[in-house]
Amino acid sequence: MTGLAQLAILEARELLRRGEVSSVELAQSVLDRIIACDNDIKAYLTLTPELALEQAAEADRIRAGAGEQALPPLLGIPLAIKDVICVEGLPTTCGSHILEDYVPPFSATAAERLRQAGAVILGKTNTDEFAMGSSTENSAYFASRNPWDLSRVPGGSSGGSAAAVAAGMALGALGSDTGGSVRQPASLCGVVGIKPSYGRVSRWGLVAFASSLDQIGCFARTVAGAALLLGAIAGYDPRDSTSVNAPVPDYLGSLEGGIRGVRVGVPREYLAEGMQPEVEAAVRAAIGTMAGLGAQIVDVSLPHTGYALPVYYIVAPAEASANLARYDGMRYGLSLGGVDLWDTYRQTRGQGFGPEVKRRIMLGTYALSAGYYDAYYLKASQVRTLIRHDFNRAFEKCDVLVAPTTPTTAFRLGEKVSDPLQMYLQDVFTLSLSLAGLPGISLPCGFDQAGLPIGLQIMGGAFDEATVLRVAQAYETATEWHRRVPAMAHEAHAKPKGEGA
Amino acid sequence: MKLSLAQVEHVAQLAQLALSGQEKELFREQLSSILEYAGCLQQLDTSAIPPTATVLPLENVMRQDQIRPSLPRADVLANAPATEDGHFRVPLVLEGEG
Question: Which of A105, A347, A361 is nearest residue B18 as measured by Cβ atoms?
């Protein structure tokens, strides 16, 4: 037992319901954990303890006054929000100097829905600048660290959210996933992370990176927690014309039922050579576990998998170069006065953006520029269609696909920063699904010899998050991986209150 | 194919980015290697394949043109580097009309 801060969301909800713990006590335990651990992990960019305790007290009042009435699903649950998602009145920096002082006058739909569901907001978590990266080392402020080994990265770009959940510094969190930015850090930090189908969750108030790919996703310590969070934020929003007007199933209610007869596809291209042997072994063992639970294992092929990386690194930067044109130093954000309008633009953007963001703006601008559009952007968009066709064909033969989330466990800080292509290869197993707009989850399926978590990726057909979650739940129930806690979280709990900092 | 310095400068100008000499050289190297890597896409025959711009089967999305409350002006301008009389204040855009 490592205290309230390490509870799964559903466990905490049960204790709150029974009156064994108050929302204020729960929030205070998590805030104590943050004081004890976040100097080392650096998951948070902005922490809002007073606001969190106020919201928790409000949750306790609502519970006390509710009588027999149904309570909001996340009442009193302390959560973190990635700093690319706007929360009214809180800084939203996107991990960039160009938005250092930006305080949005509105909340993202997803953040607003969490509050309506009764959640307590602890603060905003670190991210690679504008969600561009796989380690949080591209944050303009600081790199976050992996709770399982502080010399290693938590993954990215939603590394702050994943690390916070792993270390008991939030019971759950929101992130965003454009090419793997929820699943990859979930894998590296040993937590559950789900990226819904494109269109399932409103992007309104999510600062845009690549608009045809971006989706908000959720982190939790268990599949059920992720299901509960997704249910709270999913659904049509008239403010996002790409959010889909389709009914949202009861994800939590449809978790049970097992996977007997479910067809689990294993794409052979995802278990090819080149990955860390322990990752391959853990994923193969997980497939065996699923077979033991009655799933039917099917061999499938996604023949264009090898092209996902170049497609992504043309399409996403192209969209980013257009989206990030808005940072012009005129209406919000950094503004460095130049000799004229054009000079102001160039100085503001040249100094306000970090190296990875500038690299991608340059790449995207080149790919869209006259003379190169057909060879790069159009070509990549056509190959994207082939990648989608691969998935369509695979899902004719199976209900879900399983694969590793990442080719390796967490790498060391600084290991890949000088070589962008090496860093991009971290996402080689997550990019295809993003390009196809399909849902996927990462959940723990083992540990390597260094004690670092390994992630299992389960991918589903369009808007079939319910099946993805049900398969994940069956695997989680049959295994114990999700019960392991990083040593530093144990130690933080053993320390007397207030001594942590 | 390696990008020339002139190409890098042209792209930086299109993207409105002031880059140092060192950055130009670095991006010249890095963009060249990323683009070379992306060259593998040319192996595929896509002449009959339509491009994907969105994965959703969406047509234009319309709504009623109704008046709704907007954000308070002061809240929006609070983030602006410079304001004047309730407006954003920006540098001269059209020359000779100041």
Answer: A347
pLDDT at A276: 93
Prediction ipTM score: 0.95
CA distance A157 to B30: 21
Contacts with B19 from chain A: Cβ below 8 Å: 350, 358
Q: Which CATH superfamily is domain A4-304+384-494 in?
A: Amidase signature (AS) domain (3.90.1300.10)
The sign of the torsion formed by the CA atoms of A215, A405, A365, B41 equals negative
Q: Which residue has the tokens 């929302």?
A: A23
Give the residue extent of every domain in chain A: 4-304+384-494
Per DSSP, what are the bridge partners of residue A404?
Answer: A456
Helices A9-17 and A23-41: angle between axes, nearest 10 degrees: 150
> Best mutation site among B8, B11, B62, B84 for testing chain A: the one with the most A CBs within 10 Å?
B11
> CB pairs below 8 Å between A and B: how many?
160
> Is the predicted pLDDT of residue B1 greater than 50, yes or no?
yes
Q: Is B69 within 8 Å of chain A by CB?
A: no
Which residues of A are part of the catalytic machinery? 82, 157, 181
Residues of chain A with pLDDT under 70: 1-2, 495-501
Q: In what order do the strands lie in the sheet with A172-177?
A: A44-47, A120-125, A78-82, A172-177, A215-220, A192-195, A440-447, A453-460, A400-404, A263-267, A296-300
Residue range A218-269, pLDDT digits in tens? 999 999 999 999 999 999 999 999 999 999 999 999 999 999 999 999 999 9
Residue B98 clears pLDDT 70, i.e. is over it = no
* Cα separation values, A363 from A94, A321, A377, A476, B31, Å: 20, 8, 11, 41, 6
Both tokens assigned to A208: 């845009």
Mutate to test the interface with A, among B5, B16, B76 (most CBs of A within 10 A): B16
Domains of chain B: 5-43 (1.10.20)
Chain B closest-CA separation from residue A96 CA (Å): 15
Q: What is the pLDDT of residues A203-218, one digit of tens each?
A: 999 999 999 999 999 9
DSSP state of A295: P
Would you state the pLDDT for residue A490?
81
- Whether B31 and chain A come into contact, CB under 8 Å, resolves to yes
A329 contacts in B (CB within 8 Å)? 81
Is the separation of the CB atoms in A441 and A223 below 8 Å?
Answer: yes
Backbone angles phi, psi at A174, to 5 degrees: -100, 145
